[in-house]
What does this fold into?
Amino acid sequence: MNSKICELLDIEFPLVAFTHCRDVVVAVSKAGGCGVLGAVGMTPAQLEEELKWIDDHIDGLPYGVDVLIPNKMAGKDQKFDSEKLVSMIPQEYADFRADLLEKHGIEASEFRTIKPSATYMAENTKADGAKALLDVAFSHPIKLIANALGVPPDWMLQMGKDNDVKVAALLGTAQHAINQVKAGVDILVVSGTEAGGHCGSVPTMVLIPEVHEAIQPYGDVPILAAGGIVTGKQMAAAMTMGAAGAWCGSVWLTTAESEVPPAIKEKMIAANSSQTIRSRSRTGKHSRQLVSAWTNAWEAKDAPEPLPLPLQPMVAEPALAKVTKLAESGHEGAKELSTYWVGQGVGLMNQSISAGDVVQDFKEDFISAYERLTSFIED
It folds into this structure.
């Protein structure tokens, strides 16, 4: 396609897939798009193993890696200290999560204590931890590196230039887009509030044209539209408003290759677009996920205020890991609590097919949308 994204990433179709699953990365790249592996939850050794596997299976096709280096978070400028982070979490948070699990029939005495082992996200989102992941990523033939929750640090942008790797940044407002362009990013991932995971409050249909217009005085940096996009028709619509392609995350969650446990896949396939919520209950920042007994409890009036990143994940992730495991065994209380990041496009995700077939559906749907649009123009 005649798209700046295709030119920059050397791909056939300007569809970029954010995923935590290496199989999806490979399948999407082989189908003509570009798979991007989310690395924030991995150790450098784990990332090395995943990228080595991708290199061995992707046939030299383009792919990328995504990290998370927030501009704002608790203890950002301090040396990583797991014990200190643990001491910053009041006991009421440990008790709240344990009480919640026990209310749903889950033995939870272990969760009345916050453990230092729950600090993986805190380490990886600090400069030293992120650099360790990026050192691994840049030792592989990646085409793209992406960052969320702020302007990529100068050293990350320089690593991209030095390695001829394009740097993308996720954002949710026009002013953030201007800041990113001024900083020198190569691609803007413009994410509307419909998106799964961390997102702002502006809808995709408003945000894409707003950002496209706002950045023109500073540079016509290509835009990947994100937020609720799970079909080629939506992708085509976004491209008529100024995008050069689409960045999708949620649509891969119900694919055959996805890392998402079957019980949660079933929940997503059954969900409608109203059954997601922007909640701070998982990371401390607003992130869109499936509505569940877990999210409902944290929205209640008597719930403690979610802690800032990276403290809230230390409360949430160990408990939700047990919930997910028990849900897979059929535990009804765990099924009620289980949640996962997903966008409002979940209402259109009604089946489980391969990631490659999803890309093919996008292509066919995109062509259908193009033909429909041109049919309105008289010869």
